[in-house]
Hints:
The longest helix of chain B is centred in the C-terminal third of the chain and has 15 residues, at 168-182. In chain B, 34% of the residues lie in helices and 26% in strands. By secondary structure, chain B is of the alpha/beta class. By secondary structure, chain C is mostly helical. Chain C has helices at 7-24, 26-29, 32-57, 66-83, 87-109, 114-133, 148-154, 158-185, 187-197, 199-204, 209-235, 240-243, 246-260, 266-282, 287-303, 307-315, and strands spanning 2-3, 144-145, 237-238, 326-327. Chain C starts with a strand and ends in a 7-residue tail after the last strand. The mean pLDDT of chain C is 87. Chain A binds chain C through residues 28, 33-34, 36, 82, 85-86, 91-97, 99-104, 106-108, 110-111, 220, 223-224, 227-228, 231, 261-262, 264-265, 268-269, 271-272, 275-276, 279, 288, and chain C through 55, 61, 63, 107-109, 111-116, 118-120, 122-124, 126-127, 130-131, 133-134, 141, 246-247, 251, 254-255, 258, 262, 287-288, 290-291, 293-298, 301-302, 305.
Amino acid sequence: MEWVNAVVQGVLVGGLYALFAAGLSLIFGVMRLVNIAHGDLIVAAAYLAWVIVQATGLSPLASLILVIPLWAAVGYLLQLGVFNRVLGRDILPPLLVSFGLSVIIQNGLLTIFTVNSHKLNEGALETGSFEILPGVAIGYLPLMTFAAAVGVILALQWTFYHTALGRAFRATSDDPEIASLMGLDTRRVYAAAMALCFAVIALAGVFLGIRSNFDPFMGPGRLLFGFEAVIIGGLGNLWGTLVGGVVLGVAQGLGAEVDPGWQVLAGHLAFLAVLAAKPRGLFPRMAA
Amino acid sequence: MSEPLLSVEALEAFYGDARALDGVGFTLARGETLALIGANGAGKSTLLKSICGLLASKTGRIAFAGQEITRLTADAVVKLGIALVPEGRRLFPSLSVEENLTLGGQVGRKGPWSPAALFDLFPILKEKRHQPSTSLSGGQQQMVAIGRALMSNPDLLMLDELSLGLAPVVIKDIYDLLPQITGRGLTVILVEQDVTRALASANRFLCLQEGRVSLTGLPREHTRAAITHAYFGT
Amino acid sequence: MIARSTRLSQAAVVIALLLVAGLAAAPWWGDVATERLFGEFMIYLALATLWNLLAGYAGLVSVGQQAYVGLGAYVVFSLALLADWNPLYAVPVAGLVCAAMAWPVSRLVFRLQGPYFAIGSWVVAEVFRLSFAQVQALGGGSGKSMPAGVIKLISANKFWREATIYWLALGLGIGAVIFAYMLLRTRVGLALTAIRDSETASVSLGVRIERVKLAVYVMVAGLTGLVGAVFALQKIRISPDAAFSVNDWTANVIFIVVIGGIGSIEGPIVGALIYFALRETLSDLGSVYLLILGALAILVMLAAPRGVWGALQSRFPVSLFPTGYRVLKSKSAE
């Protein structure tokens, strides 16, 4: 029964990983950018929420009202001020800039908040759960996280295919030159995409912070999980990313059952296995 | 209306260090259809890109409806009323036919063109409006590309190599529809490899050769030989 | 008539030889601290030169080279700890093991393009780190020290031990630069420069891109493994987090190459000098120092993407390591 429980918990944590991955997938789809600081931005959002919670007394989930728009604004400005200047045919500059950003964020957080871990406290919601089978309990928080992931994917899909903004994203991703001939300012389209990505990052950060302790150096680990979920699921497919997250979560859970030290390693090995057997992922939709 | 709609002076354009246009100058009156001819590499597409703001690396002066547009980016230029049907169509593969058209109209300029008007002009597109744009035949894609440009209700429409990659029958169909488009007082620059067709559809022509204007005027005023000479520079 | 070297590059060779001789004599004119500093400089020079070959020339941006640094270190450590080898003999074995390991790794990570390759290589490094953390015989997650008896095998005398390790590091640093220089002068090198300038064009010209990339990846992995091996000799104590540290072996290296200049041989040298100068002057700032480094890397990418050396070169077209040919004006041409 512990194995069944491991699988169930793995599925649920897959929702959190899908939240990590959704932003990555969105940005790569629109502007072919992989932001190495993505994980660090998730952690930084958790810190931002912590500051707001301390300052206003709001609960972490309630603080999202402030964290999400604030973080979206930061993303908008970051794209306009930094990433727009290095986007182009060469993959090296944006990658290296995001790498520098990652180091800046980690060390900035370290300087401001010290190396001690922090946590966001949501009270009863964190520990509450209901049993579906003897020995298999579904926690309210993991369930909410999974639901949030589904909600985010639905919202992103709807935005992409049923709004003018999403149409602008698709057109600019297809052909930035001709998109500008349609009157689209591609710099602002990219900034809007990054703002949307940061909104998802903020959500992911708060859920991460409620679920576990966080410290300035957790970022890269979250980036790797998000990345693995994207690759396992298949490029260009947000629902695939959810599946990828679940596969990763389950692999990690099963690994932990064998030996707690094997948890993260099992996930990485599952990723490499999928890479070996199905290089384009389980449900690929676009060319890399 | 004595003031020209478009005026280009001493235009030089560069791709990196390579000079593609070397001192091009001409004016265009409202309602004219100008045929832009020249051999491959003469600079025709470069000239169109320079006018609509896709090519930033240039010196000289471009004025449209009395306003200087030399330093403007493409998204600003299209808002002023210049539209380009690019070489090779370049539809958005991720968008349906209808989405390509509505995107063209999101600039929000007032005018006679709308999806309904375009579906009247190109009925086949109405049938296929929800299909991905790149699933259409070459000729149909060309119609979408033209429609997309018209959706911005431009005062100046630039058409780059309409006939590229299309069968002669299809080309003829499209050119037969041109008068319906230009008949509403639209000013047009037409780039076309097929010189005969280009001269037949226009009331004035401009011939480029190695980035310079080699000949310009009314088609009937110049002999075949003169035009060939201007084209090839022999 | 064509020639490769210029007066300046010929002068540079002479100066370089004198410099190397001086550095080699460091055990006599300097103290252990000096040897260690220079040794560390040489190690970073080697890593930076190799990373530059991968990223700046072959277009393989790897954020996972720490996999081979750590693997090389662990090979030396394992042979010394478990098989009582003289660690010195284990060094070349480390290089070979890493080169061999690079082949199956490449079969996996080469399936990923561009930035995804970067992160994929990082995952592989993490797999190595986590795997070694599971091996209790080697100290597991907290690591272990090399037994004193084995260390003494390098040399019973501390002076010669420090000197030997130092010379190894020196050889690696200089060797890496020479390796890069020689490689770029060969046909493979020409292919690499073509790939650097335009991948699509070089494919159409018949350059067997995949072969070249694999060859470079494997060679660089092997040499990176040697660096890890020398690191193990220096530190004497090994742990997975230190051996496979992305900050120590990749972040610093990337900053060195970015600030110095990607895509040239001189760039990593300049970058390493700047990096160490900054470190010596700013090190007491702790994490603020790293923050400054990251900000500097971003500024360089925004303002001068070809780094300090690239910026210098656009002003004064010099090349200390010329890899191309120039046409000389011949007197009889006119």
